[in-house]
Recover the amino acids of this structure.
């Protein structure tokens, strides 16, 4: 789609591919990270009875820009005992993992990086790259805190992928597709057609499904929270125990890449949740473009709704972060293996039966 | 609840061979002076005797009595020869609500006191501090190292009255 | 052939976000399980005891502030009582009441820091700022009384440096009124949070006999279930005139003497301190606060050991006087110094994350540990 458009425009595969690939980065991830970091600090500030950044620009809106400029100027420190090759690759790998996930996320009906049939599984697979990157970072830093953090992180991401996949499987079974675009298209029109409300078909099964869909949503939301290392599951970088976990030794732009990857990831997992349960890019109340008869307005509206829903779940992640304490590593594993996985399994089973009937 | 005179009498009866002195003429606090090598015996008795039950050691303080002879060393610094270093023990019984102060003195040239860290665990770090600051060696202490000063401090014991600051420590000038 | 394995030694600190200063803990780990903890202290040693021997009794007061810098009023109070005992002087009634008010306000301020940083150690950052918001109001009260926010130099042997500000009583009452609902909010946000309880209950259990043998005092001892508070058991100043409870650990969420109990004792102690302040404000007598301050302090030859209940436990001063204007020997029995010894005992068999939870519940101030 978008690639074809650029291919027609430039007549060169490489340029077209390059531009198509960098579009989400330039147009979405970077501005989103800028806004999200500021949002995080503002949310934190207001939750804690203070104002947050106030000095740079009006109410501190340029704070993140100033931070990025500061990070760019910083010295890139590589300690003598670091494993230089792995140390340098790790942040790139982590960022690649979270960036690649954006390829299959349908922002609007008109734009998706790659309309892959196995979209949802592609996303889960490429985010696995992040684990490799984190392990590399922890090992190459040659720092005990980093190593502990990386080990915890790998264990955590691997165990929380299971409930995520189980819930995704539930949805796949229910909708019969793994293509995110089709998944979104199915939930068109009004909000009662969303999967969380039992999908578009109006019958008895729809109402039977609602409680199990909500359970599924809660399970996947908790496990994605753990997958992106946010509180209460931010054990890999628990600053009160492990200083900063696997990115303790990083400075300057390499640190910024970890940071960027974290915020990109936050949105990516929220986007998955939105696409699976909350109608993807569809508006809950129908489109202004339809009623006014302006066709190009529809993708713009869709983009707005998708971002809105995604940012809302990012906001909930921040909200949780500034409210809850942190779990301990064994409690984290307990939560996954003893509660989330059995719940997800039973949920999968019940949804399967209801769908069959 | 027992007064210090009663406790002194009990100790006298149970340890007839030890040298014990009761000192009551000093304002606000009376204390019993015990010999430095019997501290552990007395402590164990004080802790386990059902009439006394001193289950808690409030404080343990080393003191430089500064009662020796002042002489000048070859650099013209005043140092002390002879005299004593003392250790004060403040004990308390939480069930019986009475307190007791013990004092023991040891020679300044070779200060040695028996450790009570095995009897009251709280003495462990207090004794390390007394060693660190006064150089009092506590015999049978499980882990007698410096505690507040650097482990490689080799310029003496700072709370002794005749302590002189070294000029350099690890290449750094000390009175900076 | 066997694979060579070794235990991992992890140095926690001296620069580490949750060692509350410059403490170094040498942890020996087997995986994430702790087999041994060796605390290394002394990074903040400022030779307090040596300094005292070169100064007059009055000059020591500002130095006492700098030991437990979160409870400076308590340090001054203990020192003032010790010197007054040596001199054998009585201080006016009003002075005693103001001292009690200050000490209790200081206790609340200090416990707020303890609770807030404890929450931050566990990972909840918001309660930390809520606590500091309330502490700020207390610091303001101190500021209008003594002119300083942290190190006051306010309680002198024989009296106080200033009388109360004319607004003090009104502002303190306002503070009490505002603070009570905030405590409820804190309990809802942190104390009874499920994750917080999971992290702290049954962690670092301290049995009562061990606690006494280790000389543990203050909220830690009370957390183990022992009703022992020097304000009631060895009263000083005018504490015998007030009516207050002594909260002890009950094992409500786990076992008696776990980290949650120690934490909760602090929360409830703040409520009791509020009660004491209210009573003291009601009974506050009129009078002069500087009349009993001696011009020249030259106590007779003698020695004294006094102790008070500081927020962290029993703070004792052992002063020997040789009859001159400066003390011959000052030994401070710092509660944090003694309480910190228990770390190895409490941490064994727990995980790295629990070290932070236990250290936070021990609540040390390095200024006092290292002196």
């Amino acid at each position: 789609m978008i690639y074809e458009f650029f291919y027609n425009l430039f007549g060169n595969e490489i340029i077209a591919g390059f531009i198509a690939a960098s579009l989400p980065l330039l147009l979405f991830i970077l501005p989103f990270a800028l806004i999200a970091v500021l949002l995080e600090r503002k949310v934190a500030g207001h939750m804690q009875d203070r104002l947050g950044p106030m000095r740079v620009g009006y109410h501190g809106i340029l704070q993140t820009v100033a931070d990025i400029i500061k990070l760019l100027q910083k010295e890139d420190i590589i300690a003598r005992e670091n494993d230089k090759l792995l140390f340098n690759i790790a942040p790139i790998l982590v960022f690649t993992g979270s960036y690649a996930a954006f390829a299959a996320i349908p922002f609007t009906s008109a734009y998706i990086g790659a309309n892959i049939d196995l979209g949802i599984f592609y996303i889960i697979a490429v985010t696995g790259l992040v684990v490799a990157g984190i392990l590399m970072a922890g090992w190459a830093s040659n720092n005990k805190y980093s190593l502990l953090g990386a080990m915890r992180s790998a264990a955590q991401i691997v165990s929380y992928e299971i409930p995520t996949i189980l819930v995704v499987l539930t949805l796949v079974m229910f909708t019969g597709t793994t293509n995110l675009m089709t998944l979104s298209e199915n939930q068109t029109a009004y909000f009662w057609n969303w999967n969380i409300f039992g999908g578009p078909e109006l019958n008895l099964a729809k109402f039977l499904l609602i409680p199990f869909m909500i359970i599924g949503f809660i399970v996947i939301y908790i496990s994605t929270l753990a997958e992106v290392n946010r509180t209460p599951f931010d054990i890999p970088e628990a600053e009160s125990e492990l200083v900063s976990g696997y990115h303790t030794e990083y400075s300057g732009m390499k640190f910024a890449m970890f940071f960027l990857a974290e915020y990109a990831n936050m949105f990516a997992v929220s986007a998955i949740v939105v696409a699976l349960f909350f109608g993807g890019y569809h508006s809950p109340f129908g489109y202004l473009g339809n009623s006014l008869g302006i066709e190009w307005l529809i993708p713009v509206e869709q983009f707005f709704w998708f971002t809105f829903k995604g940012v809302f779940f990012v906001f909930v992640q921040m909200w949780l972060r500034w409210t809850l304490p942190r779990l301990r590593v064994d409690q984290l594993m307990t939560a996954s293996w003893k509660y989330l996985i059995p719940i997800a399994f039973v949920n999968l089973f019940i949804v399967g039966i209801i769908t069959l009937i | 609840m027992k007064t210090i005179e009663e406790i002194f009498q009990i100790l006298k009866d149970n340890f007839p061979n030890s040298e014990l002195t009761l000192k009551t003429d000093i304002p606000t606090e009376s204390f019993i002076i015990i010999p430095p090598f019997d501290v552990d015996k007395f402590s164990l008795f004080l802790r386990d005797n059902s009439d006394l039950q001193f289950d808690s050691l409030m404080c343990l303080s080393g003191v430089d009595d500064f009662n020796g002879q002042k002489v000048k060393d070859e650099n013209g610094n005043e140092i002390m020869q002879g005299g004593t270093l003392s250790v004060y023990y403040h004990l308390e019984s939480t069930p019986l609500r009475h307190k007791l102060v013990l004092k023991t003195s040891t020679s300044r040239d070779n200060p040695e006191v028996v450790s009570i860290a095995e009897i009251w665990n709280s003495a462990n770090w207090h004794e390390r501090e007394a060693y660190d600051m006064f150089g009092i060696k506590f015999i049978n202490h499980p882990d007698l190292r410096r505690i507040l000063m650097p482990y490689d401090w080799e310029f003496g014991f700072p709370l002794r009255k005749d302590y002189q600051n070294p000029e350099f420590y690890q290449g750094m000038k000390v009175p900076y | 052939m066997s694979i060579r394995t070794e235990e991992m030694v992890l140095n926690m600190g001296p620069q580490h976000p949750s060692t509350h200063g410059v403490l170094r803990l040498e942890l020996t780990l087997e995986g994430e399980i702790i087999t041994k903890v060796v605390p290394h202290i002394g990074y903040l040693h400022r030779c307090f005891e040596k300094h005292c021997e070169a100064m007059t009794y009055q000059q020591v007061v500002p130095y006492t502030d700098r030991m437990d810098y979160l409870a400076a009023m308590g340090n001054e109070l203990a020192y003032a009582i010790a010197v007054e005992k040596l001199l054998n002087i009585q201080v006016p009634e009003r002075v005693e009441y103001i001292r009690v008010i200050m000490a209790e306000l200081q206790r609340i301020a200090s416990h707020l820091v303890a609770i807030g940083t404890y929450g931050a150690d566990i990972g909840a950052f918001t309660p930390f700022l809520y606590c500091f918001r309330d502490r700020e109001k207390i610091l303001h009260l101190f500021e209008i009384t003594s002119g300083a926010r942290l190190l006051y130099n306010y309680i002198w042997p024989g009296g106080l440096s200033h009388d109360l500000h004319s607004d003090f009583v009104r502002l303190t009452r306002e503070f009490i009124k505002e603070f009570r609902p905030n405590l409820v909010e804190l309990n809802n946000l942190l104390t009874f949070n499920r994750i917080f309880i999971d992290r702290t209950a049954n962690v670092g259990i301290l049995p009562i006999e061990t606690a006494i043998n280790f000389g543990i005092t203050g909220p830690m001892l009370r957390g183990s279930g022992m009703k022992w508070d020097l304000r009631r058991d060895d009263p000083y100043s005018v504490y015998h005139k007030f009516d207050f409870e002594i909260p002890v650990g009950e094992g409500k969420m786990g076992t008696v003497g776990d980290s949650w109990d120690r934490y909760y004792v602090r929360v409830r102690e703040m409520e009791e301190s509020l009660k004491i302040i209210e009573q003291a404000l009601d009974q506050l007598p009129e009078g002069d606060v500087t009349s009993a301050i001696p011009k020249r302090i030259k106590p007779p030859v003698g020695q004294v050991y006094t102790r008070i209940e500081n927020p962290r436990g029993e703070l004792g001063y052992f002063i020997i006087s040789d009859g001159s204007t400066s003390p011959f020997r000052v030994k401070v029995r710092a509660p944090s110094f003694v309480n910190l010894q228990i770390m190895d005992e409490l941490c064994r068999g727990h995980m790295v994350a629990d070290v932070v939870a236990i250290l936070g519940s021990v609540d040390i101030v390095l200024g006092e540990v290292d002196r």
